[in-house]
Amino acid sequence: MIYKLRTLIIIAFALTPMVVNAQAPEKNIHHREQLWVGYFNQTRLSNKWGLWLDVQHRLTDNFADRSFQFLFRPAITYFIKDNLRVNVGYGYIHHFPAKGMETHRNEHRPWQQIWWTQKYSGLTTLQWLRFEQRFNEKVVADEKQDGYNYNFRIRYNFSFFIPLKGKEIVAKTPFISLGNELFLNFGDRTVYNTFDQNRLFAGMGYQFTKNLNVQLGYLNVYQQEASGNNYVSSHAARVAVFHNLDFRSTTTQ
Length: 253
Description:
- There is one protein chain.
- By secondary structure, this protein is mostly beta strands.
- It has a single domain (about 1-245), classed as monomeric porin ompg (Porin), CATH 2.40.160.40.
- The chain has one helix at about 1-20, and strands at about 30-45, 50-60, 65-80, 85-95, 105-120, 125-140, 145-165, 175-185, 195-210, 210-225, 230-245.
- It comes from Pseudochryseolinea flava.
- InterPro entries: DUF2490 (IPR019619).
């Protein structure tokens, strides 16, 4: 049964880009190459409380010609169960100037999330539902203005991790990583682009220790711009380090 499930998952992810591309002729789509590098940490302080941190640097144009975004995103975590938790945090996002422009733009992004994972024989699933409030500095004609543009966004992620040896992902295990995340915009300024973007990831990972793994793969970011008929398809190489720490004593775990 698990092998049939693995096959269906792989087929579903393989068909997703085909569905997106089938809609392309009636849209104006711009393509670009990017490199995303990130460090993701979850730290357990007690049975109920912990911390989240992710730091990312994204480059663009021929993968790494210039900086695109920098993200710093800490949060407090409350553990409902070991595999079910809630995060409340803040994100600082620095947007580097667009090509040919000079103005840097900052974004302040409070966020809340419910995160849960489930393990099966030969398969681990991860899901999260995230709610973001976005305060973007106003920029007009390559110059900053007073105040912020505000909107909010909902994100839903569903990922699969399949060990390439054994029945579970433990230390010294290579694995396949597949994921898809859908973004939806809301707010007064959202007129033509309620659909914000879709991120499809396929790659490989290696679990070095119980608490540390690295994933490398291809990420496609298909994003609708505010005009409604212009889209950007970013083809990104993504390198991500996932690091978990647990400061509980063995008697409280």
